[in-house]
Amino acid sequence: MSPLGLLCLLLAIVATLLGILYWTQRRELTGVQSVNDQLERLLAPSGTPSGRIYLQSEEPRLQELTQVLNRLLVRVSEGSERVDAVQSQGATLFAALADRRP
Description:
Helix content is 80%, strand content 0%. By secondary structure, it is mainly α. The longest helix has 41 residues, at 3-43.
C-alpha cells in the first residue's frame, strides 16, 4: 500500500472515531436536555413540583440522574405537604385563639 493510501485509511479511521464520539456525546446531551425540560415544566406552574421525570436512556449516568431527581422531587413534595399541614393547623389554632378572646 502506498503512503498516500495509508494516510487516507488513517484519516478515514480518525474521521469514523470522531463521528462515533460526536454521536455518543450528542445522545447524552439530548438526554440531559430532556431531563432539564421536564424539570422546568414540573417547577414552572406553581413552584412546587408535582410529577416525575421520565427518560428512556441506555446511559447509566442519565438513569441515575433521573432516579436521584425523582427522589428529590418526592422529598420536596412531601415537605411542601408538611408545610401546608402546619400552615393549616396554625390557621385553625389562630382562629380558635381569636374565638376565645373576650
